[in-house]
Design brief:
The protein has 141 residues and is α/β, with parallel strands linked by helices. The chain contains six helices and seven strands, in the order H-E-H-E-H-E-E-H-E-H-E-H-E.
Length: 141
Amino acid sequence: MAIKHGYKAMLAEAESRIRAYSAEEALARLNDPNVQFVDIRDVRELEREGVLTGAFHAPRGMLEFWVDPESPYHKTVFAQPKEYIFFCAAGWRSALATDTVQRMGLEPVAHVNGGFAALKAAGAPVAAKPESRSDAKPKSV
């Protein structure tokens, strides 16, 4: 089976339509109350690599549903008048995700070139993934 429109073409198209920040440019916005960082990595990546302090985790597979206010899965974090800066591990998924949510009407949006790896290398504040309710161990009685 030949792929007619591969990931390289999709990335090039997305990158031509979206804003991209370097890790340093993104980190300069980290404490801005009008900016929300959105981590779209898989939960296993968060457990393995850690999380960016202050970022909201929105798994890539749920992003469109969480962004759309008409969805039963909508998250109010995406209804705020903020700039949303998306990142993944290396910047590919976040470029595609940023293009998608921008086409959905979420604005302003951007993504981080190089993703979490670039943020980490630039000295971003990284913490261990907090335990979620499903991760929590039952309390002994």
